[in-house]
Design a protein that fits this description.
Layout: H1 2-14, E1 33-37, E2 40-43, H2 44-59, H3 64-70, H4 74-94, H5 101-114, H6 118-129, H7 136-152, H8 160-177, E3 180-181, E4 188-189, E5 194-195
Antiparallel strand pairs: 1-2, 1-3, 4-5
Helix pairs in contact: 1-5, 1-7, 2-4, 4-7, 4-8, 5-6, 5-7
Amino acid sequence: MHRRRRTALTVSAALLVGVPALAACGSETHPGAAAVVGGERIEVATLQGQVASVREAQNSTKDPAQLIDKSGQLSRAKLHGLIFDKVVDRAARDAGVTVNRSEIQQMRKDAEAQSGGAAGLRTVMLQRSWIAPDQIDAVLREQVQLTKLGIALGVDLQQPAGQQVVSEALSKASKALRVDVNPRYGTWDGKQTQLAAYKAPWITQVTKPEGAGA
């Protein structure tokens, strides 16, 4: 069980690369919103709050300038994460998948064990994934959801065929949600499942242990 959970940290993160989704049309019909997903607004203030949390964490490190310089697209990265989280929620709900607090806590214990402890996990997530300490549990919850989604669909996430099945489920969920992004932040790239003109370097690195190979 421990091995499967540990593998899920990297395998499910790999699913975030190139999962089909609905391209957003992007409009100014929702002033004050960074995006609208499934009729629910992601407020600009919410996005700015996530960015501020990361900047605060970066500024508390020994070399904040370097971290900030490497996260120049932080706003887009955070918006991507907020949108994708809703897509995963919808796909999980459609498949009858639920996640409880104990599962998230266990995932966190496993991630901390891989990263040399709680402090190590916070460092890895901030440096490689642009995730503030108060955002870690939300990311791990998403990892649990993806793992359980694969199980619910009866597929092996370690196999390309299994990843494709989960990708299709996420695509279906994304289409149902009708993602609409404020053009200030770009448009939703259906093929890459991320904001167009934005490369998310952290996607394949989420929860990857410090010192792990590429």
